[in-house]
Amino acid sequence: MSDVLTLVFRTFMSESCLKKDPGVGLPSPAPCTTLMVGEHRVCRSLLLLAAVSAASEWGVRVVFFAQTQIQSLPVFLQRCSPSLSPESLKKITFSYPRTLEELLQQVASLHESPAPPSLLIVDRMEGFLRGTAGASHGGFQSGEQSRAAHLSALLCDTAAFLTRALERRGSSSAPCRVIASFPSEGDGKDSSPADPILDVLDRYFQVRCTLDPDRSYEAAAAAAQEVWHIYLSGRGLTEASGEDGPPVTQEWKLFAFPDGLMEFKLI
Amino acid sequence: MRSLLPAVAEQLFQDIQKTYQETSQIPDDLLIALKFVFGSCALQALDLVDQRSVTCLTSPSGRKAFQVMGGSGHLYTCFLSCHYCPCPAFAYSVLRRNQDLLCKHILAVYLCQAMAATQQESVSDQQMSTLLSPTGTP
Predict the structure, then answer these.
(1) How many CB pairs below 8 A link A and B?
(2) The pTM is what?
(3) If residue A119 lies in a helix (H) or strand (E), which one and from where to where?
(4) Is the dihedral angle over the CA atoms B4, B9, B14, B20 positive or is it negative?
(5) Which residues of B touch A100 (CB under 8 A)?
(6) Is DNA-binding found in the keyword set (chain B) (predicted)?
(7) Res A1: pLDDT
(8) Is A249 helix (H, G, I), strand (E, B) or coil?
């Protein structure tokens, strides 16, 4: 089983890797909720890549929630996405709720939409959750964990409803998937593994996509500006491998080049 | 709700459903098992079931949600497909302390489903949106 992100990585693999693993196609029918944890700039690029790929390559409707406006698409997308067109971009609805309450209201009302989306993306959940009025300083209170649970559960329940709606219409775009990012570094916040908000989010998201910067000399060797390790893990991958299967993880590398291009390599 | 519970809990609800369909009551052994698996909230949840406190809300779009009248008179909106309740016990015992699997409200939803004791109510799509978002929770 491959979720949306894995298919995105495969679509933009380097040519040498493509020969070894040419399995590119539509996402598998298993429902999937993915939490992306890593540095915000890279997470946002990957989220945009997922949105544009889903809309242009697979023709599905996408709703992209973010607090800060997206001024333009990354150079990489403009140059490397062959199906990118104004018509395909119209399948993406960008929404900019300012607060957690606005985000919850917009997600809660998606069932009123005449055209169900197949992919829900939330950029920087942390910004919505930690920007709530009354948030405490230094440490999390159960109120913040409850809000994280509410948002996550609402996303999952909405995706489940939209999946049924798409299936009733006989749409090949089912199921509806959710990808959310939770920046862990570069924001001056503690990225301890014991983050209580992340513990709550892990209850609801089936797959964790972790991005770690590569601090070796591989970037220089590949003439890349940055190299990132991408780890996919979680019960969503384990379930797909079979109930009795061993825990499944996937590991990729992302090479970001000075000219804005990006390449993925399966490890 | 999709399977989010340990297999023993899933089996317990199936046994309760089967037995209740046949006898219209829950035998002592299943009640003991319920308390063993879910702890003190088991009896509180059964009280909620007896009081017909669980309502399944449906809107024209087909969206559903459960609403549970708590002992204090508060209405709690719970989801169909995953565990969440805005009550303090869920926030503390389930999320923060990881002590309990469920709060009594979510457990009451499972029990009402098993015992076919859920009330039904229709709401508009806009009302459903309000109930699912924070303005609809206590």
Answers:
(1) 88
(2) 0.88
(3) strand A119-122
(4) negative
(5) 134
(6) no
(7) 35
(8) coil
